[in-house]
Structure formats: structure tokens, C-alpha cells
């Protein structure tokens, strides 16, 4: 007997078992899908105010499957499968449109795809403020915007858009943590690179790598990492710092992977929409406020949260752009706006603020996608 035929004989009964299990899986998946269709009927009939995308329920479903999973498949794999299942659920209930800062291949695109899967309609938009505008106008159901990076801090455009859209119907309803790994993409060898294009954030996140590997190359900012890849694909002697998705989309070679200075480089994204998320028991609330220009005004507000025993997970500031040296502060606190403790703290904080807006409450993201 030929050696090459032996393994197939050994595999045949196992493959038959796999075929039978696949049949059972398909039947079960469709049984689940039929229940989802009923959920969709109830949501679409107006019997409930629960939106099609229910971040609190999504969190619950993922927590349950993590707890139930006994392996050998790791939770990350099981979770990715369930995210695709829920993506299919949206298509069955009502197809969702999700907008992000384009063009295709940006980290916002990647964050949106990891969170919402393949059964969603995606819209790539020209700027972060357009994502807010399109949500506000109702052209898209949800938008994905970057809020802060673990190496470079706040994303100013997003904070400014909250200033513009505060008091409107645009809310934060979920957050995403995405591991950000940068790549040097080019169609020429390293020693021929004269210019490196990217968005200002990745250029800063790869500062040390660029100084040691490409000390003489000019660093040029582009509107997005994908725009940078597009320029590098047609300009000789140019490279881009961008994602692998962009390398595929713009036909560039990946010369170096993971060139970020901080290997645990992570960006936090907000999902914005006109909808709210119900409390899950492990939530955050994002708040924007401004105070009088007086001694201790900021600490008065922060002390209110301390006095209610509420932990702050994030603080930032942004110029008001109306009066020089006047600022808006952004904080994230642990707890949901509907939790008594948080409701009371915000009531008390109002006494120390000229203006205070709740930007949204949402389940705390547990995993880096
Ligand atoms: O339970 C819901 O509200 C659903 O829409 C179903 C479902 C699911 O597939 O499990 C789908 C999407 C998420 O929003 C949460 C749950």
C-alpha cells in the first residue's frame, strides 16, 4: 500500500463525524436564527424600545459563552464565531448601516469589522465629524470613532465633535478596544525610502522605530493611514505606516510588521448612535463639563465623584475655541447613568459646572479585539 493513502483511511471516520456534527451545527444555528427573527419582529413592531443593536445583551451573550466554554477552543475563537452570529442576527432583524472614518482599511474600519462582522453595511466617511453628522441625520444607524490611544492619548477631532453635537440625539452606546499594530508598507526596499506617510497618530506611535530605521526619511502627515497607503502605492520612494488590510487594498508590500514603539499599543473607540444601552452591572458613563475659571473649580467637580465612591477611568480636556484658555473636560466614570450612585453624583456635580452633558453610558469593554 502506498504510504500517502494511509492517512486518508485513518481520517475518513473522523471526517464523517465532522460532517455529521456540521449538519447538527447548521440545524442549531438556523434554529437560533428563527428565534432571532422573532426578536426582530418584536423590536420592529414597537412593542419594546430595545434597539436592533443591544450592547447590553451582546455583553451578556458573550459573558455566558465565555463561562460555558470548556475548550479545547479558546474563548477568543468562540467569541469571534458568536460575533459573526450576531452580525447575521442584525441582517435578519433589520440590516444595520455602520459608518467609520474612511477610506477602507483604516483602524476605524478594522474596529468596526471586528465588532460588527461581515453581515453589516459599512459606510466609509471623510472625517470624524461626518460620522457624527451622518448619525445625527439618521443616514447611518451607528458610527465608530476613535477616542483615545494608549500611547498618544486623546483624539482631538472626536472630542471636538462631542462639543459640536452635545445636547443633540447623538449618544455613546458602546466602546471597543482594538490592539493597534503598525506596518511599514512600500513597493521599494528600505534604503530607497525618502518619505513616510501616515496619520499624525501612527507617526507619533512609531517615532523611535522611524528614528532608528529611517532617520533621514521625511515624515509627512496624511488624512488617514489608508490615504497614506494610497499615496505610497503611486509615489516612487514613498512608504506608508498602515494596516495589513491597507497593504492588501492598495497593493503594497509589508516591509516590517509591528513597528509601534509600545507593543501593547491599543486604541479605544466609541460606538455612537441615537440609541441607549441598558445597565449590565459593569458599565461606564462618559461626561463632558465646563466650570468657572475659579480656584478649585475642577477639583470641586472631581471631589463629588470621590465623595460618592465613584472611580474615574479617564480624564481629558479640550480648548473651548471660544475664549482662549477656557476648557471643556471629559471624564469617564465607572457605573451606568441609571445607577443611583451615578445619577446622584451627576446631580451634585451640576452645582459646580457651568455646563454638564452626559455623552452616553455603555458596557465596559473587557477584551482587546
Ligand atoms: O437579543 C437581542 O436583542 C438580539 O437582537 C439578538 C442578538 C443575538 O444574536 O443574540 C443579536 C444582536 C445583539 O444586539 C444581541 C443579541
UniProtKB/TrEMBL annotation:
Domain of life: Bacteria
GO biological process, one term: L-phenylalanine biosynthetic process
GO molecular function, one term: chorismate mutase activity
Gene3D superfamilies: 3.30.70.260, Chorismate mutase, Periplasmic binding protein-like II
Domain Prephenate dehydratase: 97-274
InterPro entries: ACT-like_dom_sf (IPR045865), ACT_dom (IPR002912), Chor_mutase/pphenate_deHydtase (IPR008242), Chorismate_II_sf (IPR036263), CM_dom_sf (IPR036979), CM_II_prokaryot (IPR002701), G/b/e-P-prot_chorismate_mutase (IPR010957), Preph_deHydtase (IPR001086)
Record keywords, A-Z: Amino-acid biosynthesis, Aromatic amino acid biosynthesis, Coiled coil, Cytoplasm, Isomerase, Lyase, Multifunctional enzyme, Phenylalanine biosynthesis
Pathway: Metabolic intermediate biosynthesis; prephenate biosynthesis; prephenate from chorismate: step 1/1; Amino-acid biosynthesis; L-phenylalanine biosynthesis; phenylpyruvate from prephenate: step 1/1
Subcellular locations according to the entry: Cytoplasm
Entry-linked PROSITE patterns: ACT, CHORISMATE_MUT_2, PREPHENATE_DEHYDR_3
Residues the record marks as site: Essential for prephenate dehydratase activity: 267
Record's GO cellular component terms: cytoplasm
Function (record text): Catalyzes the Claisen rearrangement of chorismate to prephenate and the decarboxylation/dehydration of prephenate to phenylpyruvate.
Name of the protein this chain belongs to: Bifunctional chorismate mutase/prephenate dehydratase
This protein's encoding gene: pheA
Amino acid at each position: 500500500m502506498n504510504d500517502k493513502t494511509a492517512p486518508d483511511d485513518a481520517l475518513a471516520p473522523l471526517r464523517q463525524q465532522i460532517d455529521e456534527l456540521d449538519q447538527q451545527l447548521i440545524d442549531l444555528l438556523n434554529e437560533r436564527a428563527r428565534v432571532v427573527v422573532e426578536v426582530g419582529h418584536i423590536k420592529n413592531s414597537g412593542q419594546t424600545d430595545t434597539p436592533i443593536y443591544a450592547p447590553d445583551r451582546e455583553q451578556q451573550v458573550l459573558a455566558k459563552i465565555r463561562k460555558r466554554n470548556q475548550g479545547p477552543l479558546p474563548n477568543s475563537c468562540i467569541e469571534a464565531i458568536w460575533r459573526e452570529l450576531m452580525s447575521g442576527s442584525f441582517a435578519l432583524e433589520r440590516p444595520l448601516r455602520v459608518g467609520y472614518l474612511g477610506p477602507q482599511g483604516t483602524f476605524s474600519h478594522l474596529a468596526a469589522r471586528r465588532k460588527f462582522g461581515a453581515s453589516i453595511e459599512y459606510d466609509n466617511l471623510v472625517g470624524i465629524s461626518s460620522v457624527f453628522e451622518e448619525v445625527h441625520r439618521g443616514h447611518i444607524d451607528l458610527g465608530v470613532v476613535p477616542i483615545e490611544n494608549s500611547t498618544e492619548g486623546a483624539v482631538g477631532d472626536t472630542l471636538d465633535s462631542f462639543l459640536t453635537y452635545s445636547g443633540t440625539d447623538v449618544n455613546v452606546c458602546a466602546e471597543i478596544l482594538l490592539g493597534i499594530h503598525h506596518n511599514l508598507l512600500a513597493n521599494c526596499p528600505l534604503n530607497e525610502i525618502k518619505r513616510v506617510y501616515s496619520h499624525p497618530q501612527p507617526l507619533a506611535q512609531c517615532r523611535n522605530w522611524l528614528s532608528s530605521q529611517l532617520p533621514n526619511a521625511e515624515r509627512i502627515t496624511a488624512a488617514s493611514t489608508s490615504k497614506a497607503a494610497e499615496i505610497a502605492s503611486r509615489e516612487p520612494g514613498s512608504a506608508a505606516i498602515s494596516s495589513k488590510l491597507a497593504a492588501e487594498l492598495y497593493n503594497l508590500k509589508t516591509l516590517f510588521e509591528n513597528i509601534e514603539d509600545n507593543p501593547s499599543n491599543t486604541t479605544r473607540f466609541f460606538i455612537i448612535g441615537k440609541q441607549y444601552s441598558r445597565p449590565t452591572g459593569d458599565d461606564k458613563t462618559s461626561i463632558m463639563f465646563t466650570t468657572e475659571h475659579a480656584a478649585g473649580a475642577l477639583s470641586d467637580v472631581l471631589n463629588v465623584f470621590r465623595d460618592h465612591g465613584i472611580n474615574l477611568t479617564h480624564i481629558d480636556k479640550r480648548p473651548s475655541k471660544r475664549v482662549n484658555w477656557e476648557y471643556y473636560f471629559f471624564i469617564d466614570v465607572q457605573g451606568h447613568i441609571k445607577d443611583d450612585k451615578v445619577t446622584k453624583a451627576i446631580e451634585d456635580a451640576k452645582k459646580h459646572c457651568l455646563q454638564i452633558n452626559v455623552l452616553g453610558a455603555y458596557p465596559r469593554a473587557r477584551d482587546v479585539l
